[in-house]
Fold these 4 entries.
Entry 1:
Amino acid sequence: MIFFRRQGGDTPADASDAAGQAGQTGGQSGQPGQSGQPAQSDQADPTGLRARCAAADLPDAVLGVLEAEIGRMEKTDASAPENAIALNYVECLLDLPWNGLTRDSLDLARAAAVFDASHAGLGQVRERVLEHLAARVLCATQPAAVLVVDDEPIARDNVAHVLAREGYAVDTAANGEEALARLALRRYDCIVTDLKMDRMDGMQLMEAARRVAPDTRIVVVTGYATVDTAVQALKTGAVQYLSKPIDIAELRATVREALADRAQGLSSRAPVLCFTGPPGVGKTSVGRALAEALGRRFYRMSLADLRDEAELRGHRRTYVGAMPGRIIQALRATGVRNPVFMLDEIDKVGQDAKGDPAMALLEVLDPEQNGRFVDRYLEIPFDLSQVLFIATANGVERLRGPLLDRMEVVEFHGYAEADKLDIATRFLLPRQLREHGLTAPYPQVTPAALSRIINDYTSEAGVRGLERELARLCRKLARLRLEAGGHAGGVGLTGLAGMTGPAGTMERAASAVSAGGIAPGTTAPDAVPSNTLLVDEAVAAALLGPPRYRHDAVHGAPRVGTATGLVWSEAGGEIVFVEAARMAGSGQLILTGSLGEVLKESARIALSHIRAEAEHLGVSGLSGQADPVQGGQSGPPSQSGQPGQDASPAQDIHIHIPAGGIAKDGPSAGLTICVALVSLLSGRPARADVALSGELSLSGRVLPVSGVREKLLAAARAGARTVVLPAANEAEARALLAEFAARGSGGLPRVAFAARVQDALAVALLPAKAAGSEGGGPAGNQGGGPCSS
């Protein structure tokens, strides 16, 4: 009995002997003529490293390595290079947060408030972050579940009562079979079981529980304690062995010790999130907000210039100047082993003769491996399982497959105009006004002026360009205010005199400034001082100059041979106009407009489908057309298929997508090209207010496309009334419509879904008698970047 209780925490014999020897040493040191204790301590630890080791909270394995290293240092000459290498190594081990943790914040409402106060327009990303936080809060706040198994009702009830008062969720079972039945229904963190029971004893229960719930801790209690049964119980899987009658304090301490690492086990498999999206959409700021919501420290490390594998895994201590890898250095700087660690620009990681850093990241990011990450400099496993890794990338195409498999991709889409307006009003404009000294009083920039800046001076998915334009506007306002007398004066006419702008714009801006900052025809709000400058659309245009970008709008009457399509790129969505014309020629298919190979293939597929289904589609004039796959000269004119008639003359078909200076490629223009060709060959005009997007198969099926969100926003901005999308994208499109309706951001066009070409033709084309005048379509896309359909 004494043997078992001594395992529960009695002082070991060697410790008591050491304490006795220390007492004898202390007594001897107090004799007259002997040196004092501080002098002996300094002599035993001349470097002071042993005292730092004793004061630090270090694992036993690390203490053993430090003891050996300090012992070698004491035997080495202080001037030797090996001594400096060893000193750096020891100090690195002492500075690392082997057990340093920050307690996570478990207030989900506060986390939501932190996110909402710093971001706007990231609905899906916000929900994913809050879901992650909710899972952590649920795991951390639910009480530990304990199952008490004993065939004696009194003993079972007493143990359950004691543990329930400790705050545990306690269930009871009368025997091993009943305990296994409960294990099949729920998870238990700890099982307190009697050893001797009818039908299934404690040993059999432990063996069965290890197969069903291997992570459950088991404490054995019995009144028939022997050394053999204790050893057998511990070998079977018990973490502790208690004897009857049970000491209540010992029972509480044993269960508390068994559940000590429960919270660590619940959060040991932290997810590795990969934020992907265009530049400027808030990937880094979301990671910083997540760290603030969790109450953790945040560290950002850029991987854009990473070429050497040793920068991650560290250098071996075989030469002077060796150092640990950047992961260990970052943890040493943060001082805790559970920070939010952002690996920025992970898709820019390079590769050279010194190794592949992307493959070295596998051990860092894999939840199955990073619990024992070995840095080559340390040569000791370090636990990275508590670190919340967040990677950022502009796209996942360049990421290696094994690396991408370790991460959960969270996509960041581009902002809608309403989101950009909200971000500019709440965050960007106030910050730029403060940074440029425009605070006494603040200039009032109207929402209409911000909308004009967003549409005419930026073309991006994020808001970095918008912030630069607002900074440019603030610089001009700051110069005008300074020339007018600084903080005491308003903006005068002199500063605007040398500026150029559209006709009538400068006069209106000057009138606005001379009237005390309020534009003619407007009323100053009560809260706005009379000397406050009101920057409206005219003033903004006068200060920023001519527009840099022009977004096309659907307009005009329906036209034959011209269809409106939707494309998207990293800068967001745009509309394009597909124009088709036919003429006498040699049967060629001519494609122009800086088109990529995939888009050219889409045009050939559309023409081949029309030729194969000409009778059903109601088109004519293709009998002399060359094979569109060849795209060149045709052979001898083919027969029309009707006896007694000659073949129709060969004709060239020319398909053009304007804005030839912009590269365009992608499969989703196939449906738009098909509608333009059917309109041309059947004489049915295509509606200008209907925009289409869909990949076309040779049999006429409309296949799903990507970038639905960006395309819907582009259609709304261009004034389209109806958007035709593939039927396979219906669920995604309806979810987006519901999201915008819930946020109050209406104005999206009606969406029609097409499974085959005929469904799209019924929406986009009018009867032939409704044809207006044929001719060229509207001007093409003049946007600011390469488009991908």
Note: The longest strand covers residues 572-584.
Entry 2:
Amino acid sequence: MNKKIWTSPGLQVLVIVLIYFLTGKLGLLWATPPGYASPVWPPAGLGLAALLLWGPNRWPGIFLGSLLINITSTRFAPSDMSQLSLAVAIAMGNTVSLVTADRLIRRFLKFPKAFFIERDCILFLVIAGPFAALISSGLGTLALTLGHQVHSANIFMNWLHWFSGDATGGLLFGPLGLIFSKDSRAFWMRSTKTVILPIFICFALIVGALNFLNSVEDQRSLAEFQKKSDLAYNQIEKSVRTHRAILVTLRSFFANSERVTSQEFQDFAKTLNANNPEIRTLGWIAAPLQGRNSFKSQFVAPPETNKFFLEPQHVFSPEIQNIFQVARTYNNVISLAPIKISQLDPSPLLILAYGHKGGILFAVIRLQELLASTMEIIGDPSYRITIEHTLTDPARPTRMIVDSIARATPDERLHFSPTMTTSHLFTLGNLAWTIHISQDTSLRASSHLHTELFLVSMIIFTFLICAILLSIANGFVRVQEIVKQKTLHLNELNLRLEKASQTKSEFLANMSHEIRTPLNVLLGMADLLEDTPLDKEQRYYIDISKKAGANLLNIVNDILDISKIEAGLLTLEKTEVDIPEITGEVYEMFLPKAQQKDLRLSLQIKDEVKNIYLGDPTRIRQVISNLLSNALKFTEQGHVDILVSENHDPQRPGNLLFEISDSGIGIPEEKLTQLFHPFTQADSTITRKFGGTGLGLSICKRLTTMMGGDITVKSNGLAGSTFSFTLDLPKVRPASEQRLKRKDTERGLSVPLCPTVLKILLVDDTVDNRDLVKAYLRNTAHILIEAENGQEAVRIFKTQPVDLILMDMQMPVMDGVAATEEIRNWEKSHNLRPIPIWALTAYALKEEIEKSLQAGCNLHLVKPIKRLDLLNHLADLTS
């Protein structure tokens, strides 16, 4: 259910809207003029990654996210259709760019298949970065230009900022977005640490470098602005004071002349006005006639452009008449708030007046020309100067009277965005004036070059870093692909080896079963035949047959052991081992053979090793038996000695040392190194004379190595040899002096008696094996019931009670494992007490033994089994 919800198109579109909007807001934190485009625009890369991962039909998420950013990032008025149209146009441009990039990547790169090749990575970066940014920035800048939102001087810079932001965002956040997809990462960037951390470092470097450059640029711009704003203010103040001085000079001219003619006024005014082109008019207004309140100008210079003041019918406004009345009584230059006289000039005009006993001297100044000359001195179009008439009455608003960009187009005035502003206040006569000097640093020509170089360098740097990172990451992917292929090959090989090992195990089990089954009959029948009346010659033949069968059994056991060791199927037990007891048992077992050959067999166990250790008693007994058997086999006269002590040789591993010395035939020195190889003997004639397969010493070496020790041999090549081996067994505790003696030999003196008669179900598909067991039990009171397979045994068990089941494991129709499991399940379902089930089988491998015990058998007896051993087990069961 959750998976279905997360894969729904509606939810995915909503997620894209949220990601685009939130990361877009984050990108706007680093926005800079002009146009306030971000130098790193994360939605460009993340939006493309979303389309690649979820499909191109999720493009409405890109459109809505971009539209939401444009609406919330401006003073949007729902009723302003032009703003809505502009936001829609920008959102469509962003959507078209990402959808186009998605189509190209799917078409040429076959995303996400085979997307870890360097060529595909570079092509992806080109499409996700510069190509997509070229479309979005071009369409976006065009929309802003047509919507009159960008100054014509800033079109290129706005496009460059937009292009660099989208390109950098695509390069950085496109791969970053794809990393978090399991599908694309499986084919592309599996080494996320290799890409994520360096990309964030690259992003931090770009933002840090941008902040540093902006900080340096801001400090330099501030210092330059302070310098030029002071220059502009001083120039304006100087010009106004010069105009005031001209009036003072003109007043002195009138004061020193009894009568001033029009030509004299013109000549003198021309001289004063020569270096001040912003002065439009210099004039003299005579005092009003008796009975009249209005002034009338007498002289103006230059007269050809100031006929307005010469025509008698024109009268100044009451405000001008009032100021002239004040000027007659005010002994200094005064000013009039700038006015517009359309007959003279449409721009604001400043009138300065200076009273005189015969009239008023005045100067008309073009403020726009004053600011223009000041701007020429500054020499920077990014500055703006405004002059305001500051009123003393706080209820009346301050009125701006002149602007240095008043002659610019409405588009230029609209898009002037001051970044720094300073104000200066000064008084002129009876009025106060405020000069505002501001600068839009985005219009400064010198800053464009720095920004262009940084943005271009940033794109190149980002592209190279991402290309290198993706190449490294994809190198890891190629290695992983190779490792994956090798792993698959090794897994296949391992499966084949496991299958071969299983086949070998099955072969060993079958071989063991097939050899031991007839061998069980041969040795069993020989034992039975030995109990019958025989003459001396017949008994001799029986002895030879039993020895041959025993040798054959030893050969089979050796072959199985070496095969299990080589296949890794042999495991060691970890149980308590009584070293003196085990060694003594082996000694007692071989003592009759030594006495038969008239050899002295001795055993010496040092007190230091009379302890209980942790190990595998069966394998320890096997190693001692093999070495002792060889020593007795190859010694015709003399002695065989067994010594058990601690290992004090630091060159040899282990803590226990076993030494078996004999006075036998000896071993040539050049043959010593070959003794422990499989199927190797010192002399080829030994096999013919003494028999054996040459596996015993190899098995001993493997077993001692598995038990943390080693085995060596010493011989002079003439007579006698010493085999020694070490074992590394953890000590548990000292051995008890009163050890229980095993009575197997005493048991063998007579047939054990069973106090209870048992009803035994014998399950075996081989008639000879069944006949052998019947022969073993012929002289006992036990009742024997026969079954040829497991299915028949289950049927008999369910129909009549039995006391014991002897179960063969390998049978047709139903094998012993299945039959045992069915019997146990039937007992459990009927709440019956489990009866003893003994596996009597030729399977001798440990895995087969465990399998029978896990199926429910209580005991696992391996063929060939001796009659006395079987009767002892039955006696133990009934006792």
Note: The longest helix spans residues 445-530.
Entry 3:
Amino acid sequence: MPEVPRWRWSVDGPSPLFAAAGRINLYGWCVHETASKPPAVRLVARDHVISCKSGLERVDVGNAMPAVPAARQSGFAFNGWVPVGYSTAYLEATVKGTEWQRLASMTLCSELSPLIGHFDTPLDEVFTEGRIMLWGWVLHPQEPIEQVTVRVGPYSVPAQYGRPRSDVVRQFPDVPHQERTGFECEITLPPGRFRISARVRLQSGWVLDHDFNKEIAVKDRRTEAVIEKLYKHRATLLAFPEYETPRVSILIPVYNQLPVTIACLRAILSHTSDVQYEVIVVDDHSDKETAATLAGIRGLRVIRNAYNRGFLESCNAAAAAARGEYLLFLNNDTEVTRDWLVSMLQVFENRADAGLVGAKLVYPDGRLQEAGGIMWRDASGVNYGKWDDPNKPQYNYLREVDYCSGACILIRRQLFDQLGGFDRRYTPAYYEDTDLAFAVREAGLKVYYQPLAVIVHHEGQTSGTSTDSGVKAFQLVNAVKFRTKWQEALSRHAEGGADQIRAASQRGVTKRALVVDARGLTPDQDSGSVRMLALLQILQQLGFQVTFAPLNRLRVPPYSDAMQGLGIEYLHDPFIGGFDDLLRNRGGEFDFIMLSRAEVAGAILPVCLAQAPETPVIYDTVDLHFVRQRREAELSGDDLLRRKAAEMEATELQLARHSDAIIVVSPEEREVLAEKLPGQHIAVVSNIHSVRSFIPPFESRGDFVFIGGFEHTPNLDAMLWFASDIMPLVVQQLPQTRLHIIGSKMPPAIRALASEHIITQGYVEDVIPLFESCLLSVAPLRFGAGVKGKINQSMSFGVPVVSTAIGAEGMHLRDNETILIADEPAAFAAHIVALHRDADLWQRLSRNGLRNIEEHFSMACAKRQVEELLRIVIPAAPANG
């Protein structure tokens, strides 16, 4: 290492001095043997003086030279652009700030850097042939730009260059030559679509091209006139319903842009038939043609401003005139889609803490624009998921967010008035929606993002996209106002960065649970899905963000959509990528993993143990399969079934041993497992039901019902046995009565039972009318295990049940008190006849069955059981939600 008297130094990198794309990362150390403070260091290349950061900590140098006073703070570094080409660079240092000492010379080689630039002219604006104003900015980090030519397809025009751009200075504070980088020009264009680029000449004579990767559309004037006439005609065809007491007031500020506004209104009319609403348009002093067209739309309430008041004041004026219980603020450059408004209202119905609800915004080309907003500590915002695939699971479940863009937000009118409306300090626009979200949170409520409400947003139609001029310039001004107002709240936000986006998108989440079941839940088709959905909701009440993954990885709309609407993250193909990847990447973020059913645990438990060994696993048996199979074997006398039952017993016991806890659905099954697995924690979490508040009386009822999915073998056997051995005995004494068989995936063998006394209905979407009209329910099960959802479901409707002993086991039921039990056909038929004829018996069983549900199978009971289980499995007990 070369030495200068009293100076010691080293350039650690790069070696040689090569600046790829004009940028170099230079670092090293430098000390003066007698100086008490570290020297300043610079690099001089041709006429360029490049200052380095000095005084950086270098523990290695300090340890190597303990006698040199400033050795531990001798580091220097530079990360930036250097001049183009080959040159001799000199490393210089000074202790006093003057009298620079040249330490060494080195050969520096630097490539030519590409241009940096942005085309700001709003591309969604409708241009007509003729002269068009174009503007944007462009800079070169190595040297000044002397000339800019804008190229529009085959056409070129010199641009005026050098206008101040404060936004570029803020965006690139360390890049040279960034102060005056704006350009603008006028160009005459014919109709067509043209790609935008720029040709730039640098001070040194280099000529560079820059493709802005954007196109501009220019329309023919005559064509535009025809289109405008068409939109005016479409407006005359619109007619909104008029309600005396609308539930929702849809408020739309408008300034010209008539075709966009008509498209917005047409979408509302097409997709909002399920809610009573009114539409109020605030015409912010548009041209006369726009005003006249809006005034001619039937059922539309129009408020016309005497002068242009801006977005914020127009919204406040619309809110003051609204009659609805809820206010829906909607941009006129949006198009709503199916079920949008009812989905947003459901959040208020399901979440008592909901204060503000926003929608999923997508671009017209289908890309995601926003799945809720993230606010960083410095008051800069991020549209979560922007430009990504809107179908990814992380963007498709109800969740709490920092804010939602005001293009579509819903709030109670009472709360909006209480908060004083949009804060006028943000007039004319920008940050008023974010400010409202923070005010809602300060009032003790939450801001939710509802992905089921999908809104197509033609962003930039009115205000453009450049923050350097026009209304959008207020975005930068109002950011300062917002930061000042909410400084204390913002101090609790993350500082910002790409590595923090996922964590920041999980606002309010402190605990997480992963639940894996065999397939997507279908609660109107099987009792297992009813129970599991209730379990997921209980976990939510206990403060867990629930992630659900079906083993088959299939999305099952509309059921999966409904789960996402409840706030459950639903993982599915093609986005899940396999359970190995899922648990390798995310296994550690979950407080526990629940595996439901033996087939699921058999497939996933080994993956959990390998990829997430520290995460507790709960094995939810649903029912003990080997118990059911053993009973079926005993009934049929089939040796093959006996062997299968023994194999299943070995499998289920092995899964239970390697799990941290086990869930069974009945005390009887807990006893079976406890005997075989002493010391293992076994919890009982049975079926979960809510009792009906209204029970139609005995006198209004007739017929009886069986309900059950026919993929479950015991149900198939039960109906075949009942039809052949029991139903004929019933018909002998009750010739007018009928049995209604309902259940999904009904096989031909069951449909063949149809007669004047047996109605084979198959899957029924809404079973409430049947349970409110039938006298009783039957569960003639000859084998099975666990708790029978069909019995509890019937009792939750106040409908008495006749069942076998196996059907009634594990459910705290007593014969002739809460249920009627018979295992022989004649006795079973006699119970059915008795319930048809004895109103007192019917009322006693109905009343006691409801009480049994409340005591043993209610949400409150299951919640206590789950909470007790998690206290044992998870070191820190969950807080009661």
Note: The first helix runs from residue 59 to 64.
Entry 4:
Amino acid sequence: MHDKTFDVIVVGGGHAGCEAAAAAARMGAMTALVTHTFATVGEMSCNPAIGGLGKGHLVREIDALDGLMGRVTDVAGIQFRLLNRSKGPAVHGPRAQADRKLYRQAIQAEISAIDNLSVVEGGVEDLIVVDGRVAGVLIGDGRRLGARTVVLTTGTFLNGLIHLGEQQIPAGRSGEAPALKLSERLYALGLQLGRLKTGTPPRLKASSVDWEGLELQPGDDPPVPFSFLTERITTPQIACAITRTSPETHAIIRANLARSAIYSGQIESTGPRYCPSIEDKVVRFADRSAHQVFLAPEGLDDETIYPNGISTSLPADVQEAFVRTISGLERAVIKRPGYAIEYDYVDPRELSLALEVKELPGLYLAGQINGTTGYEEAGAQGIAAGINAALAAGGSDKDFILSRADSYLGVMIDDLVTRGVSEPYRMFTSRAEYRLRLRADNADQRLTPQGIALGCVGKPRRQAFEVKAVKLSEATAMLRSLTLTPTEAGRRGIDVKKDGRRRSAFDLLALPNVELSRLAAIWPEIGQIAPAIAAQIAVDARYASYVRRQELDVEALRKDEALRIPPELDFGSLPGLSSEVRQKLTRHRPTTLAQAARIDGVTPAALLLLLAQLKAQSARKAALIRGAEDFARLFSVSRETLVRLSTYETLLKRWQKTINLVGPGTLDHIWSRHFADSAQILEIAQAGDKRWLDLGSGAGFPGLVIAILLAERQGAHMTLLESDTRKAAFLGEVGRRTGVPVDIYPERIEKAATQYKVGPVDVITARGLAPMPRLLELAAPYFSESTVGLFLKGREAQAELGEARQKWNFLADLRPSQTDNDSQIIVIRALRAKAEG
């Protein structure tokens, strides 16, 4: 029996745990956040700072999904700086130094105010597992909490061990007990665990620092907020200071290396490469006479200084000696010595892209337990795990998985579960292949619509985003409508190529030294654009041409991601692969061809062999359909539907004798290819009860087939457009003989929208005989914001999509045909024409 049952239980009240619990609760799941004590929820265990290069992008993405970290930092931040200002916006890194107490208080206030979220104080010692699936947790005092899903965010508590010189202290962080039994449970599950380490510097007393001789570093004025909801920062701002170690500092450290836990052999695990201890710096960079130390106050009314740059595991007496050789710290008082901490982590290759443990369904992991370092990496994993745990708890068979082309969050999770870690993982902008698209400034445009669709975005953010989106759209449309010839631009002092082509204000904004203020002198209405919207448009315009080029690469990635690898595929039996590649594929179990390509050691030749195998499997599926009975079995259609399709087949063969409805070979593959492709389109659409439109229906593929498959569902309706009157007559005959209600309009597609008042509709289908630019032009009158287009195309799809983007904006997803290796189903959403010029 359980003391209480929840939909989702989140274990751990750190940054990952808070984001996971809040996200699950926002999605409507009854959620419990289990932590030792509520007083430490949101504790900043290490540097009280948020963001930086790469990390700041993650915070903006958390915020775009309505997470906590961005807006809490805006409340608690006492110094904001936008790093990399001299470089392009794609690599700008928002960063803030936070007041540790204000941050903790703000997080706790947020957690307390969230509906469906309860806080349970106690230490989790074990997982409850029933029939091979997680079913809850066991608290140290004997309480049993049931759950449909569990998220573990244990940070450094999993078998945590603090090292301070020769001392070893079992702890998750200073003064708090480690999670020992939970670590034992994970080992017992057979998961691959390892050890990592991190460290922290000594904390100093502010009044003992000689500030007069130090280089002060103020923040930005005005400060740039993290959250898209924050209009301005109201918390008082402070300056930090910079100092440096000295040759004397390094001499003391070298003389005591044998007493450092890192160099004495006491610690064998790996620490973060990009945040090394001061001992590591002195040894690895022996030619350097000084290393920078950043002195940051831990709060507005806190006497504690965090000296970033001198993390150490040396004994307390050595720390006191070397600290006092640093300029400005000659009389410094150490409030708490620094230390190193070792902890267990789970090899993230044990996880799916949803952050679910493959060997124990219902269990999700987020944060340092997955081998990462940093608040931002933890929080981003937390929000993803919380969303997926809530989806699974609600019975959904869909996971929330972001592509590498969508977000830094997608890059990080894919890196973790594909490659694993050999050292604590830290996010950098250089890890992203598509960073021109993945900017910190457009995180809401990329992710908030997905969050709204998932239900994890609350009403205030949704309304704010919708208002912003409308303003952006209107302002962009206005800029695209204002144009100049090259001669007119030259007269205004704007130098463009003399090619006779008119350029819009949006195009001109992409040129060097052309600002909105300059364009407003030409077109005064531009000056009425709100400053925040104007700033966003300026960045969008500057990157527009580069992003268009990158879209081609993204579409190639989408194609590979769409090519799923069946979970039952036996890599060990694939011919032509080396034993090393077989072992790596079997170990990692990639779920897509794109993921397999990112596994270290999987060569291009191996990928070609794997691709051939997957295509051969698709061909075998087509071969399995030899007729009506095979089709009925594979696609689970009723006997009545099968009779209708057989009637359709008979009529097609009869009419084919008098008019040319289909190609000569079509009749030989009507069930295995043409009916099967139509059924696949219906599966992709997942919109059986909606309004359907088939363009240029011809012999009825896929529209008439889909109409027959939908005939037994209430609320579905199909309209067929076919300008050839003889083919339209055939379609009508099939409709009458099968009893399937369809509207058939014998008119050119361009005229039907007005003549028959067709559209907009929910789903548009077509066999893509026309090139994609023309096909989208024909489909456009029938599109609304929610319409999905599903077009069957051949090998030329990729190139044609690139051409179509010259005139149209849209979201595209390519799905391989299950029955034809040379065909793809192109999924088009959010279709809209680009402004002229």
Note: The chain is about 40% helix and 20% strand.
